[in-house]
Amino acid sequence: MAVVTIERKVLQKNDELAQENRELFARNGTYVINLVSSPGSGKTSLLEKTLAQLKDRIKIAVVEGDVQTDLDAQRVAKFDVPVVQIVTNGGCHLEAKLVQDALSNLRLEGLDLLVIENVGNLVCPAGYDLGEAIKIVVASTTEGDDKPLKYPAMFRNASVLIINKIDLVPYVNCNLAELRENALQINPHLTVFETSCTTGAGIKEWSDWLLAQTGKH
Ligand code: MG
Ligand code: ZN
Questions:
Q1: Closest by Cα among 181, 120, 188 to 158
Q2: Can you give the CATH number for the domain in which 142 is found?
Q3: Along the chain (217 residues), what's the average pLDDT of each consecutive run of 10 residues?
Q4: Which protein residues have a CB closer than 5 Å to ligand 1 (ion)?
């Protein structure tokens, strides 16, 4: 029982800091997305493709969350957008406080879109509000079609599902219709995109949708 109480306190404090972040984003007119998935689903590749589509049309910055290394931040920095790396040193999710600290390295004024790439993990990032407008969950076809049933909290708390690596469907044990159906069973309000960072399929549709959400088009 004590564990539950402590966890609740931690989450309550996190929610307060997330609310501070949210108010800060609102004051600056910055639309913020929290990109979540299991490791290896292609979040960073998807982000690269998205930056290629949008970086000359709106002002974008990125916060990269990783357990170790700044490898993903280096990939993103090649697109000439401001990027801050958070290394959690083993921590398996980002928290509102970590994002708040990272924000001191970014200029929010005039920033249209902030992308927070969370640590690859389908469990606890579902419970940690960072102050984002929406969570976007990426599920790749290589993970199979049962992920929404196994990790329902993440799919319930997300507003968007991006089914990535659709070019691999012929080679993996994943039924796209089944994956979509499983996700919508958990959360009927999900907006769903299907993408491939290899063929480019669906990248424009997803990027255009995201651009519209920022209201800066
Ligand atoms: Mg990554
Ligand atoms: Zn965690």
A1: 188
A2: 3.40.50.300
A3: 71 96 98 97 98 98 96 96 96 97 96 98 96 98 97 98 98 97 98 98 98 90
A4: 43-44, 72
